[in-house]
Predict the structure.
Amino acid sequence: MATPKPDHIMRIASGYAISRALLSAVGMGIYTRLADGPMTLDEIMAEYGLLRRPAMDFFDLLVSVDLMGRDGDGEGARYHNTDATAVFLDRNKPGYIGGVLELWDQRNYRFWENLTEAMQTGKAQSETKQADASFFEALYSDPVRLEAFMDAMNGASLRNFQTLAKAFPFERYQTLTDIGGADALLSRSVAAAHPHLRCKSFDLPPVTEIAARKISATGLAEQVEAVAGDFFADPLPEADIITMGMILHDWNLERKKLLVKKVYDTLPKDGVFIVIEALIDGRRRSNTFGLFMSLNMLMELGDAFDFTGEEFFGWCREAGFSNFETIPLDGPSSAAIAYK
Ligand SMILES: C[S@@+](CC[C@H](N)C(=O)[O-])C[C@H]1O[C@@H](n2cnc3c(N)ncnc32)[C@H](O)[C@@H]1O
């Protein structure tokens, strides 16, 4: 047997600093700035008010993990985006995923300091811990923060929704309701790819105002409607397909099951329920991102958690659904589909 080495342990243990550096770079908007062209260290220092030694270490750390490029060595070397950071971390690109990284930069990174406490108490470590106002109360009363949250959701969901629009046979159905649809990204993505489909994006009133604006800005008002409501208190808008993107993982088991049953009761015979989540793999061994997301729900909300496809299908079976399938989406995410 080969002698074990500590390298893997140390790489993961120091990973917090690499994560921190990436989130700081996104928060500072450096990748967006580098879209205008490469910059020397002196130029970056002047623009961001940084000191030489830490700035040099910071940017070269990012170079060492392939999260930044650098032409040349030493004085005069110029830092630039990599192929991936140019596409995904430049705020002005349509593929920008940095919204969710901005959220982690500003909030989640520090919550994780209390992971052990969260596991011992089952309590959220987010704003709710201080109890002045919950994250969502503060969010819905502040249009700028709300819009930033929508951008963060888009960063996490855009590629999933685009993949779903191609992978699922929407041509067989006429209507879709997306529950907790945020700024209607799922409805807009699917409607744009399937012009016959009529979609409703259902969310709380402050959110549907943003959705309505984006629907009309993208010229999809004929096909997509923003409907305001509360998915616990109000009836769900009827449709052939009901979708939920990262909704069930926000709630405890009782509320998850309540929502699944409500969807079943709302769907027509032959209706379809699609959830889009970073589903944890059945043996709980390989989807690190799904497991991270589940603990992230603990940190944010306390009793919320992510789940495997089999767990979801079990709740669906209990509600009355009869057939099930899973479609892989972008990276660690999947669509779990239940047929009535
Ligand atoms: C995690 S976000 C998911 C957004 C989007 N579905 C996606 O996958 O990117 C959860 C969404 O659920 C909405 N939401 C939370 N509670 C709700 C409720 N009681 N009724 C309707 N929408 C709600 C939030 O406003 C937010 O837009």
User: Anything to note?
Assistant: The pocket of S-adenosylmethionine is lined by residues 153, 157, 180-182, 203-204, 207, 230-232, 245-247, 250 (CB under 6 Å). The mean pLDDT is 95.
